[in-house]
User: Fold this.
Amino acid sequence: MNNYDVVVLGGGAGGLFAAANLNCGKVAVIEKERKLGRKLLATGNGRCNLTNLDMQTKYYNFSARDFIEKIILKEPSQKLIEDFRKMGLLCRPDSEGRVYPYSNQAISVVDVLVSKCEKSGVEFITDTRINEISPKNGGFELVSDKGIFFCKKLILACGGKVQKNLGSDGSSYIFANQLGIACSSVFPSLGAVPVDDKDIAQAKGVRTSAKISVLGDGNILHTEVGELQINEKNISGICVFQLSRYVSEYYANQSQYRNIKIAVDFAPDISFDELVRYFGTKKSSEDVFEGFLNKKLGSYLIKKSGIKNFSAKDSERLAKIVKKCVFDPSGTIGENSAQVTAGGIELGEINENFRSRKYKNLYIIGEALNVDGMCGGYNLHFAFASGKICADDINSKRKNNDKNKRN
Ligand SMILES: Cc1cc2nc3c(=O)[nH]c(=O)nc-3n(C[C@H](O)[C@H](O)[C@H](O)COP(=O)(O)OP(=O)(O)OC[C@H]3O[C@@H](n4cnc5c(N)ncnc54)[C@H](O)[C@@H]3O)c2cc1C
Assistant:
């Protein structure tokens, strides 16, 4: 009963895309959650930023870039958009190249993938958590809380280890361990950065445009311009998310830097000299930021500068802090706020078709692997692309087998 040609373990982005593209015998998707694609529904603030027209290796972790180069050659964003179109999903990019479903609703993506799977006869086994995987008779035995499954080919698509409430709970790494597959340590990325600053709560709720840089031992490692959000104990916003990997890496003891800091320029389009002149026209702490920055932010910056009662002679000191306000990250970003897991199953364990080098009937795709991208559709692109490439490989092997049997 529970015998399948292919089991796709994990009904998330990569798993559903793989299943929707498979064309080979009896296929099941096994998913621990009651609903398929729960995380997909939460992506892009419910809009699902599924790829990006600007697809380059530099948007992925350094160690994965050679591998990613081959993947985006096989499955560039235009091809992924076309694959989705063939399934019935229309997409459109925003002005910055981020691609969303035409409906602007993540549910459209899940609906189209589920419909395509249903049309191909894929069986969905939900609310079933697999706890153990072992190789058996050339295939795999999967032990769940509801029974045992056997498959000739297994696609491991269990995701990473952030936002467990949406499904992926780190099972991928447990399975890797059970199967003797190498895995690097994992840490969360793309999230709010907690900062060590007793006064920051004073500016809580402020949202402002800023230029934000992450510094490693005093050198700029990466800079972003965008909206910065100040919260009670952390700073956030897409531009902070993009830098957060450096902070997590540092706290995971995997950084080459001895210290990591975040420097914010709250007036990136105003020069230091201009600011000094502007502050020179002001008289007191009360009016110094009037007509310029958010007042709560202004009070916080005055406090941080150490100025007691502002007068024109403090203009340079204040301009310095506005142009370079340095935050000390106080810890790693939280698994519950991060969007992606960095680290994971080593890329050396698979070939370019996501097939395991150790087990010829095992494929590993998506966030489980040691690949993490920046915000902008890069993580979903990788999950979908890996699903498509592995499905194509399985389909072509099946075709060849059928051909050989006929001859
Ligand atoms: C809030 C949020 C917003 C995001 N927004 C974007 C975005 O807009 N664009 C973008 O590119 N990326 C985004 N990401 C990242 C992106 O969602 C993930 O990188 C992507 O979903 C990974 O796909 P995956 O198939 O590898 O894993 P997942 O989508 O996490 O799917 C894994 C599935 O496996 C199931 N599973 C796990 N363990 C087991 C088990 N033992 N037994 C059975 N089933 C199991 C899980 O329940 C889950 O459904 C976002 C992430 C979050 C958290």
